[in-house]
Write a structure and sequence with these properties.
elongated; Alpha-Beta Plaits; hydrolase; alpha+beta; hydrolase activity; 410 residues; 6-stranded mixed β-sheet; ArgE/DapE_CS; binds zinc ion; disordered N terminus; Aminopeptidase
Length: 410
């Protein structure tokens, strides 16, 4: 009940509780920790310790996928309990891992060097900057005695296959009571279209991968007409995919298809009788697994090949671990709260955009059906050398998130 709240603590507005200098020093500390996907232990310890030192009661959450990847890791989770069990619950989600360190850096890829308002390092923008925004926003929310809960999830394995860290949150019920999620991926850099920050990314396409096996008939290479060449038929399938038209969605744009890998035939004097083909397929709502499998079968039958063709989707830890598309309603209360806070704190109405590829947000937005919004500090060169994040945006996003969360959960 509001009359029993600690008035002096609440008298400070949520965004005024953000210490930008503290955020930047945490950013540098985290950028200096090497944490490519599946090697996040040191990073998880640092995030845990930071929360623990502030009395925010973090817990490790075990992530395990023994069948395909053999990965065992730990998310870090913390919860601020609200005063009203009927009030909404907000999830703040950020990944602790980065891509593997890429070649081409002309300095230490983990320098955390700051120059001209940019902090450099692999993962600085994707997404240690955003993770720091969420951590300091979470700290700012801790004393506010809000009605709703805030669940902070610092996850592993986002850049690896299947987004295992966030997927484990779903498997273990940590998303069950969540009514809205903020994922602090860098907005403009990953958006389909040019945007200015602050930007709210309200949806994303999904993605699947076809694994296609083409089986022909071997013969001596001197007489190719006597066999059925699986490599040639796989090439015909790849070309047909390349020319395929995909469905279009009003805001997510069109689905897309990209042949990725073709492999077969290694005998110097034989018509190859086996070839495999991998094809990436980005999908929009309505393009379910059944639909895309049916499309591929139709495309292959149309070609009337002599080879036989098996079409499957890539093996996943579980059927619902696929990345499905989603769109969050612009009128949802959390979207409105973020838009209002952005406008109030920056003077500009935030841009709204959509992302074209896949990530943890698909698990939250599609599978868990949580209204999911990405907002994060921007930068450039993500997944490349020279990656940086704008330092002033780390604090700016934290202020917006803290302010909007407090308004939505008050
Ligand atoms: Zn990311």
């Amino acid at each position: 009940m509001s009359e029993h709240r600690d008035e002096p603590a609440n008298a400070i507005a949520p965004h005024e509780r953000i210490d930008a200098a503290e955020a930047i020093s945490l950013l540098q500390e985290l950028v200096r920790i090497r944490s490519p996907f599946f090697e996040e232990d040191e990073m998880a310890n640092a995030v845990y310790d930071w929360l623990d030192e502030r009395g925010l009661e973090p817990e490790y959450h075990a992530v395990s996928e023994p069948e395909i990847t053999g990965f065992e890791g730990r998310n870090v989770v913390a919860r601020i309990e609200g005063t009203d069990p009927d009030a909404p619950t907000l999830m703040l989600n950020g990944h602790m891992d980065t891509v593997q360190l890429v070649d081409g850096w002309d300095e230490d890829p983990l320098s955390g060097r700051i120059e001209d308002g940019k902090c450099y390092g692999q993962g600085a923008c994707d997404m240690k900057g955003g993770l720091v925004s969420l951590l300091v926003a979470f700290e700012a929310l801790a004393d506010l005695q809000l009605r709703g809960d805030v669940v902070l999830t610092a996850v592993v394995g986002e850049e690896g296959p299947y987004g295992l860290g966030t997927y484990q949150l779903l498997c273990d019920g940590l998303t069950d009571d969540v009514d809205g999620a903020i994922v602090a991926e860098p907005g403009p850099t990953i958006a389909q279209q040019e945007l200015e920050n602050p930007a709210l990314i309200l949806g994303s396409r999904g993605g699947v991968r076809y694994e296609i096996t083409v089986i022909g008939d071997a013969a001596h290479a001197a007489h190719p007409e006597r066999g059925t060449n699986a490599v040639v038929d796989a090439a015909r399938i790849a070309t047909a995919f390349d020319e395929m038209q995909c469905a279009t969605h009003p805001v997510l744009g069109s689905g897309s298809v990209c042949p990725l890998e073709i492999r077969g035939g290694d005998d110097p004097l034989s018509v190859p009788d086996r070839c495999s083909l991998a094809v990436n397929r980005h999908v929009v709502p309505g393009e379910t697994e059944a639909v895309v499998l049916e499309q591929a079968s139709a495309l292959v039958s149309e070609l009337d090949l002599d080879s036989s063709v098996e079409i499957e989707l890539r093996d996943v830890p579980s059927e619902d671990a696929r990345f499905g598309p989603y769109v969050t309603n612009e009128e949802h209360g959390l979207v409105r709260a973020l838009a209002d806070s952005s406008e109030r704190l920056t003077g500009a109405e935030p841009a709204v955009g959509y992302f074209s590829s896949i990530g943890d947000f698909n698990h939250l937005g599609h599978t868990a059906k949580i209204p999911t919004i990405m907002i994060g500090p921007d930068g450039d060169n993500v997944h490349r050398s020279g990656e940086y994040v704008y330092t002033d945006e780390v604090g700016a996003v934290a202020r917006i998130v803290a302010d909007a969360a407090a308004a939505w959960l008050k």
